[in-house]
Amino acid sequence: MFVDTHCHIHEHDFPLEISGVFERAASAGVDTYVCVGTSIDSSAQAIAFADQHPRSHAVIGVHPHDTKDGYDIKQLVGTSEKIIAVGEIGLDYFYEHSSKEVQKEALEAQLDIAQAENLPVIFHVRDAFDDFWPILDQYEGITGILHSFTDSEAHMYEAIRRGLYIGVNGISTFTKDPVQQAMFDAIPLDRLVFETDAPFLTPHPFRGKVNEPAFVRDIAAYHAARRGISLEECARVTTANARAALRI
To answer: What is the pTM of this model?
Structure first.
């Protein structure tokens, strides 16, 4: 069985009919969905969705792009037993839709909540590790997942050294960058988790289609083949990793 550790199927504008999404996921062996917020409204939608669907969990947080619009997630804390983590939070300097200063303030404020509530964290970090590591290192005991990781092998090991898991999605199946592929291959199996980021980043060979949790199996199959292990072994270890990372 598989866990989709990061998806946005809870969003009101998700383009696929949910009953069909669940049926295809079940057929693929995907039995757990982690619905990740990107704003206050999106996080509230994740909670409502998870409350309605037994195999779904909610993660509350404000994406760095959206921090300019506010990041007070405290109002959502404790509103549902289905909330399992804070995220996706972090720093994104590639686009810088919100200023660097606001992003850093929002990251610290949301890490304060994660630490106070003893919740793991799902991080989004892009072109910003020089600022990210010093902030994270101020917070003892923070655990979680570095989502949609595509950066260097050096930063991957820095994350693992700090106790984080590495979230890998469809990008890994279609990237043409040999350095990036080597990094994906180097992730220790006991620190690897899979995600779709649905509806985005659809894996090969489904490019052009809307991404959905069922495709976690295809991402796992791709990496199992590259590592020379069975899909069953890959599923066993990475599912255990996902459940440990998010305490589910």
So the answer is: 0.97
